[in-house]
Please model this.
Amino acid sequence: MVINERLRVVLAEDSVVLRDGMVELLGARGCEVVATAGTGSELLAAVAEHRPSVAVVDVRMPPTHTDEGIRAAVEIRASAPGVGILVFSQHVEASWATRLLADGASGVGYLLKERVARTAEFVDALRRVAAGGTALDPEVVAQLTSSGRRSRLDALTPREREVVELMAQGHSNRSIAALLVVSERAVEKHVAAVFGKFDLPATEADNRRVKAVLTYLAEGGG
Model:
């Protein structure tokens, strides 16, 4: 399991002070930062050379400080799908985030710097993404789902909407049960109802959870 391994990380952050601090913090938490990058092109080169478990990417990087980082992240998703991507930024770039999630929500995270209160919380998200999970800040989810078709979402009950939104944030059934103060069995029933309303039958390679999150993000929620 990735959880028990020393994560290999490429860190893309143009602020030298923040970058050096993150390298130190991640190293203290059992991660190995194999390379750092200050530009989108440096990030692409570092990922191609080192093939890390996960890349931590800021959105706005030189030379234009607009969307170079997340553009590079989208390119990495296409060229190296086994590399997890955790966008860690002050900004939500909804259009590029949607493209980042276009081929699946597994192995993708998007956290806002000012909303991460503890290092342990960040490293937990990093490990989850590296293991193929999802870690989306609620504010990111809100912006991604601010518009869109409502047909299948209208069929959800308020509780089912809460459950699928927490799924989009990367929470397990056990975690959702704790947050909503209900039994894990109740959460399982809500998840099954979401699958049914989203027309997601069981398959041999059951990835319905990811498909349910993608449906939620694509059609609008929150």
Remarks:
- The longest helix spans residues 184-197.
- The radius of gyration is 17 Å.
